[in-house]
Amino acid sequence: MEMRTARVWGMCGLLVAGLACSRVSPDNSKVVANVGGEKITEKAFTEAVKILLGDEARAKDLLTNPANRDQRNRFLQEFVDQKVLVKYGDKQGLGKDPKAKLLVDAAKANAYGQVLMERAVSTGEPSEEQMKAFYEKVKAQAKAAGQDKDFPAYEAVKAQLPAAVRRDQIKEASQGLIGRAKAAVPATIDPEWRSAEAK
Length: 199
Known about the structure:
mainly alpha; 2 domains; flat; Trigger_fact/SurA_dom_sf; Peptidylprolyl isomerase
């Protein structure tokens, strides 16, 4: 539960930053919250939920199903609390604080990495072809390691393959992400500095 709450807080933080920076056409929908004079409208909150859940049907269910009212209200409260912390931090001068800037940059890099990985991994269930290719790859690895004697048949493990293929896709996307980023954004570290003793 703590991990889930932390993840929602993190995602809300990204939305707070994103919505604050975006230029949006006038929104005359109902104001559902007010944070230090900044109005959060029903339309803006609905859009935030759709973005975070990545599924319009799930978002609609969360927002309109009476059974989900408590969850929706907690989500809105966390969204508001994020905005409160940002505004309070700004009033405390954290926009100019070196540590806060480093933490914001780190959070931004993590957020970008997550979104880039999600874009790199196909959505939905893997196809039969993808599952068979993954199965054959794992089988070949087992054979190369001399561990294929009792390797299960494809049909015996087919039910577990969608999740396994998804994990494999995420692993490959993760391994390739920094390489693709560095190809697009060249970066170097001074080798003399790397090998120099600390002063």
